[in-house]
C-alpha cells in the first residue's frame, strides 16, 4: 500500500498547485503553495477531471524527502554511484526543458548527475548526486517548479514526476509519486510531448 506524504522540515512539498495553460500530461510550470501534501480522492467525473489531476500524492516509502530533509526517517537503499539510465535521463530532460528560473543550470548538470540510492526494492524513484564542478541553480525552494503529470493511455491520471534539488542548487532526487494500486515498475515515457505510463 502506498503511503501519503506529510510535511516535515522547513521546506514541505507543495499541495494544491494550479493547472496552468497547456495540454493534459505536459510539463507545466507551477507555483508551490508551500503547504503539506493533501490526500483527496481522484476526479470521479468528466467535469472534475477537466479541472486537473487529483491533489493526492503517494509514494512507496518514508524515504520520500530529499537527503537534506530526511532527519529521523528511514534512508533509501544506497547503491554504488552509477550514471543516469536512458529512462531517467529522458524524464529529467523532459521536465527540465520547461523554462523557469534555474532551468538552464539544472539542465547543464545532467551530464554530471549520478544515481546514488533507490527508494526501495524495485522502486524507480532515486536519489541523485551531481559531481562538482557544476553550475549551481538558485531555486527558491527544493522542488523544481514544474507540474509533470503522468497519464495512462486512456488519459487517466496515475501520478506525477517530481524533481528535487539540494536547497535549490543541484539535482538531488527523481520521484514517481503515484496514485495507482500497484507501485510503478518503470518510469513513464514521453509520447507526443507528454508523460505516459505504463511505458
Q: Describe the biggest sheet?
A: 9 strands, mixed
- Gap between N and C termini, in Å? 22 Å
Query: What series of H and E elements makes up the topology?
Result: EEHEEHHEEEEEEE
Tell me the β content: 25-35%
Mean pLDDT: 74
Low-confidence stretches: 1-25, 30-64
Compute the CA-based radius of gyration. 16 Å
Shape: globular
Structural class: mainly beta
Number of strands: 11
DSSP helix count?
A: 3
What assembly state would you assign to the polypeptide chains in this entry?
A: single chain
In short, what is this structure?
This protein has 199 residues and is mainly beta. 11% of the residues lie in helices and 28% in strands.
Descriptive account of the structure:
The chain has 199 residues and is mainly beta. The chain has three helices and eleven strands; from the N terminus they run E-E-H-E-E-H-H-E-E-E-E-E-E-E. It has helices at residues 46-50, 86-96, 103-108; strands at residues 3-4, 27-29, 58-59, 77-83, 113-118, 126-130, 146-151, 157-166, 170-178, 189-191, 194-196. Strands 2, 4, 5, 6, 7, 8, 9, 10 and 11 form a nine-stranded mixed beta sheet that branches. Strands 1-3 form a two-stranded antiparallel sheet. The longest helix has 11 residues, at 86-96. Residues 1-25 and 30-64 have low confidence and may be disordered.
